[in-house]
Write a structure and sequence with these properties.
The complex is a heterodimer. By secondary structure, chain A is mainly α. Chain A contains eleven helices and no strands. Chain A has a domain of 188 residues: Orthogonal Bundle (ABC transporter involved in vitamin B12 uptake, BtuC), CATH 1.10.3470. Chain B has a six-stranded mixed β-sheet, sandwiched between helices. A three-stranded antiparallel β-sheet of chain B has the order 2-1-4, covered by helices on one side. In chain B, strands 10-11 form a two-stranded antiparallel sheet. Chain B is globular and about 50 Å long. The chains are: A mainly alpha, B alpha/beta. At the A-B interface, helix 6, helix 7 and helix 10 of A face loops of B.
């Protein structure tokens, strides 16, 4: 017999992992890992602002992430600061600002740890609705812009000359990432969101021959990581979200091992 | 063609053959609509007038004009930083100039081959999939183009592991997929070995012959390009000189820009022909070059 909260954790985790596959692929292909990280950090500011103005938390996180994303694009236009510097500035200043703002809210006790590292076992029915609503809109959105986004990823100028509205596509993609950060924060936590986007994706690379294969494989591996991580947490009494990432890393290490093995066998065969 | 200073005549001399075939075509038909169609093909595909591009304090292009017509190969040459790629970006619409006028033929479709393309290893991408990114999904069409450029064997290969020459041909295939009226090639022979370079130029010449599209390309190697082009535009922020390859190579502005080394290379180039002292070259209808 499984408890209700475990079922919700499993459903929520798998929902996020399925979405993280294709989305993580684009993050990795466009070398946007630090961009995702910055948006994740700014989510805490969104939480703080949500409490401060008593808004819906999901809506305020999505809003904050979109503003930070636009700021980031603006910062990248100038040549004064390198991209990693401006990313670092925005990531940590928004995190710090979020923490400071939260400290002003005397009347509300916020469980900071659950936002930073996630609290999969505390998912409510409403959270699940948000995850599946947000998740399915992300998948539909990605499906619609898949070809133009992929073309833009491979070569932006070429895509632009071929008639793709690359700026619009990039903007839509940023909004999609912002929605993902909002729905994934409760599951995996601000500090670990990017790892769920990147690690299953990197593990999937060795076995994929097309972009689509890589996306589905990444989703599958993400689901295995969620199930494995929950099992580890259940039987080993470890923190849930970090356990999921640990299982994902083990999968990644296995993929490296099998690739090396496969390559050496092929080498000997020749 | 003797009256080189008269604008109209210059244009005619730029496509002597082309115009000859068209005139023959016009004589053989009485259909007004057909004549109208033929006249339409004489319209410039793209016409740039007094283009001015500035990046902050740095002037990249100053009063540059350029015309590309159907069936002709126009080559941009010039030293590094001369604004060749900038001009190309203006032509394909990636960059809007601060001043100047751009007239494109209505419904002009452009095939573009960018200067550099590196697909990261993390992105699994076969050549076939890469060509499908244009939105054209039919295999027949993709394989027909690959066949035309003799790189069908690369279709299932990962694009990251192609040689320089193969990659350039695949990029050319992508530019050709949508049957463009104007083909814009930014340094098409980059990263290709010497024999491959000649083959690629020959291929570009064939594409012009078979498809009749206009071709604008950038190059900074001098003597190879001279043989493969109808019209040369020498650029150094402003328009240095332009005209028939042989005339440009004699132009004092050109010699000043490229120095004696270039002049020497061109002397070698001219040596391939019968009368090096009369280097006025024209193209015959078969496409071979001889002294005119």
């Amino acid at each position: 017999m499984m408890d209700d909260f475990l079922w919700r954790a499993l459903l929520g985790g798998i929902g996020i992992a399925i979405v993280a596959g294709p989305l993580g692929c684009f993050i990795v292909w466009q070398r946007m890992a630090y961009f995702g990280d910055t948006l994740a950090h700014s989510a805490l500011l969104g939480v703080a602002l949500g409490f401060l103005f008593s808004l819906n938390l999901y809506a305020s996180i999505i809003g904050t992430c979109i503003v930070i994303a636009i700021l980031l694009v603006g910062l990248q236009q100038q040549r004064y600061l390198a991209t990693d510097t401006s990313l670092g500035i925005l990531a940590h200043s928004s995190l710090a600002l979020g923490l400071v703002t939260l400290s002003f809210l005397d009347n509300i006790r916020v469980d900071l740890m659950s936002y930073l590292f996630g609290d999969l076992l505390a998912l409510t029915q409403a959270d699940l609705y948000w995850i599946y609503l947000g998740g399915s809109s992300i998948l539909v959105g990605l499906l619609i812009i898949w070809r133009p986004l992929l073309a833009t990823t491979v070569h932006e100028d070429l895509a632009c000359v071929e008639g793709i509205k690359t700026t619009r596509i990039r903007l839509i993609f940023m909004i999609i990432v912002a929605i993902f950060v909002a729905i994934a924060m409760k599951i995996i936590g601000i500090l670990l969101i990017t790892s769920l986007l990147i690690i299953p994706t990197a593990a999937a690379r060795s076995f994929a021959h097309t972009p689509e294969q890589m996306a589905w494989l990444a989703s599958g591996l993400g689901c295995i990581a969620v199930i494995g991580g929950l099992a580890l947490a259940w039987y080993g009494d470890t923190p849930t979200s970090p356990s999921i990432i640990v299982v994902a890393v083990v999968l990644f290490a296995c993929s490296l091992f099998f690739t090396a093995l496969f390559n050496s066998i092929r080498h000997v065969g020749k | 063609m003797k009256c080189r200073n008269n604008g109209y005549c210059t244009n005619i001399s730029r496509h002597k053959n082309f115009v000859e075939t068209i005139v023959a075509d016009m004589r053989s038909c009485n259909d007004f609509q057909h004549v109208h169609l033929i006249m339409d093909t004489l319209q410039p595909l793209v016409q740039l007038t007094d283009i001015h591009v500035q990046f902050k304090q740095h002037v990249a292009l100053k009063q540059v004009s350029l015309v590309v017509r159907r069936g002709e190969i126009v080559t941009l040459i010039g030293p590094n930083g001369a604004g060749k790629s900038t001009l190309v970006r203006v032509v394909v619409g990636l960059l809007s100039p601060q001043k100047g006028q751009i007239i494109r033929h209505p419904q002009l479709s452009i095939g573009y081959m960018p200067q550099r393309m590196r697909v990261d290893n993390i992105l699994p991408m076969t050549v076939e999939r890469f060509l499908k990114l244009t939105g054209i999904q039919t295999k027949d069409k993709i394989y027909a183009i690959l066949e035309e450029l003799s790189v069908t064997y690369t279709a299932k290969r990962a694009i990251q592991y192609l040689s320089g020459g193969e990659l350039q041909r695949v990029l050319l295939a992508r530019a050709l997929l949508k049957a463009p009226d104007l083909l814009v090639l930014d340094e098409p022979i980059q990263g290709v070995d010497i024999t491959g370079q000649y083959e690629l130029y020959e291929l570009i010449g064939q594409i012009r012959q078979q498809r009749g599209c206009g071709i604008l390309m950038v190059s900074h190697d001098l003597h190879v390009v001279m043989a493969a082009t109808d019209y040369v535009v020498c650029l150094n922020q402003h328009l240095c000189c332009s005209g028939h390859p042989a005339n440009v190579s004699q132009d004092p502005a050109y010699l000043a820009l490229f120095g004696s080394k270039a002049a020497h290379e061109l002397a070698i180039y001219r040596h391939h022909h019968k009368h090096p002292e009369h280097p006025v070259l024209t193209k015959t209808s078969t496409g071979t070059i001889h002294d005119g």
